[in-house]
Amino acid sequence: MTSQELYEMLKKVQEPKGFYFNKDMERTMELMEALLVNKERYGYMCCPCRLSSGDRDKDADIICPCVYREPDVAEFGSCYCNLYVSQAWNQGDIPHDYVPERRPPEKMTF
User: Fold this and answer.
1) Hey, which bits of 12-108 come out as E strands?
2) Nearest-CA neighbor of 94 among 69, 76, 80?
3) How confident is the model at residue 110 (pLDDT cuts 50, 70, 90)?
4) What is the C-alpha to C-alpha distance for residues 57 and 41, in angstroms, rounded to an integer?
5) CA–CA dist 61, 2 (Å, integer)
6) What region, left, alpha or beta, does residue 66 occupy, with left being phi > 0 and alpha being psi -120 to 50 degrees?
7) Whole-angstrom Cα distance, residue 24 to residue 90?
8) 8-43 burial, b if ≥16 CB within 10 A, otherwise e?
């Protein structure tokens, strides 16, 4: 699968749920490629902006779309990676504030 194919597949599923890809296509396609690299490396598409343990069970919360995406987009208009965003974020109607890490520190120890 190519990063473009992944983009098209995910777009069809996520947009009806109210999650859009960042309109910065260079950033978005870099993240698509990183998801594919992680799928090849670990067997699942873990968040490219976080460290994976390589253990699917330990990483369940950061398999993209991660469990933090919904609260991040609701509060900031963007997920931690800036991959998934709201329409308002893409349109510049809300500020592009830094999205803090929601993943608990105890989940980041290996």
Assistant:
1) 20-21, 84-85
2) 76
3) low
4) 15
5) 24
6) beta
7) 9
8) eebeeebeeeebbbbeeeeebbebbbbbbebbeebe
For residue 45, is pLDDT > 80? yes
Mean pLDDT along residues 56-79: 97
Kindly report, residue by residue over 12-41, the tens digit of the pLDDT: 999 999 999 999 999 999 999 999 999 999
Q: Which residues pair with 20 in a beta bridge?
A: 85
For residue 109, the model assigns a pLDDT of: 72
DSSP summary character for residue 1: -
Cα atoms found within 13 Å of the Cα of residue 3, Cβ hemisphere only: 14
Check residue 108 and give its pLDDT.
82
Can you tell me the distance from the alpha carbon of 97 to that of 26, in angstroms, rounded to the nearest whole number?
A: 19
User: 3-class SS at 93?
Assistant: coil
DSSP code of residue 103: S
